[in-house]
Amino acid sequence: MSQNNLKRRFKINMKRMKNLFKGAIAFVAVFFATQLAHAQQKIGHINFAEIIQSTPEFKTAEGQLKTLSDGKTKELQDMYAMYQTKQKEANDKARNRSEANKETVDVELQKLGTELRDIETRINENQRVAQEELNKKEEELISPIHRKVSEALNNVSKEKGYAYVFDISSTNIPYFQGGDDLTAAVKTKLGISATATPTPAKK
Predict the structure, then answer these.
(1) Lowest mean pLDDT: which of 1-5, 92-96, 121-125?
(2) 41-189: which CATH topology?
(3) Residue 1: per-residue pLDDT
(4) Which of 144, 149, 183, 187 has the fewest CB atoms below 10 angstroms from its CB?
(5) Regarding predicted confidence, which is higher, 104 or 2?
(6) If we measure between CA atoms, which residue out of 194, 176, 185, 196 comes closest to residue 158?
């Protein structure tokens, strides 16, 4: 191995050591900064979804949404049943088509084809409108509950002096240990039993 190669390798190794040393210093600095922050600030967590689903307003909202959804589903089912009836009629006519009746049957099949396309278009449009109405109704019913729970959370956090409160039902937290669970306190602030369980999802 030549002297130049040794010098080059030595420079590379020294540079790598400096980078590792800088990284170690940065890690130590972050570690102590984190420890200091934890010592100075209170951290808590809640299950926001559980609180919302434990409110009486949510149970009422879910019932209204289910009623609306069931009604829209029934409308679409009726339209699909009509489509199937027309489809069967067209299939029967096509199956019984003969040289003797082909002119009449072809006209009828053309008419049925137009009707089927019209029903299919209406089904697609009704599905789109139904979904929009459901989304709008859900926003209308759930948003006030969301605001109410958020306000209660803010009040509890300020009263108890918390700097950070994480929502474990939606925030991507791969791991956490410690911190105070404020779920029961927020429920109490809302006038809900601290042990109230979420409303089971209706099928």
Answers:
(1) 1-5
(2) Protein Binding, DinI Protein; Chain A (3.30.910)
(3) 45
(4) 144
(5) 104
(6) 185
For residue 175, give the DSSP letter: -
Please tell me the distance from the alpha carbon of residue 51 to that of residue 28, in angstroms, as a whole number: 38
Domain boundaries, the chain: 1-40, 41-189
Cβ-contact 190, 156 below 8 angstroms: no
Cβ-proximal residues to 59 (8 Å cutoff; 6+ apart), any chain: 199
Burial of 31 (0-12, 13-18, 19+ CB in 10 A): exposed
DSSP string, 151-170: HHHHHHHHHHTEEEEEETTT
| Per-residue model confidence as pLDDT tens digits over 24-45 | 434 434 444 455 455 567 889 8
**What would the two tokens of residue 183 be?**
């779920």
Q: Measuring CA to CA, which residue among 199, 185, 181, 157 is closest to residue 46?
A: 181
Sheet with strand 42-46: strands edge to edge: 162-167, 42-46, 180-181
3-state secondary structure (DSSP) of residue 180? strand
The proportion of the chain whose per-residue pLDDT surpasses 90, expressed as a percent, equals 61
All residues at 6 or more sequence positions from 92 whose CB lies less than 8 Å from its CB, including other chains: none
Euclidean distance between CA atoms 157 and 180, whole angstroms: 11
CA distance 71 to 78: 11
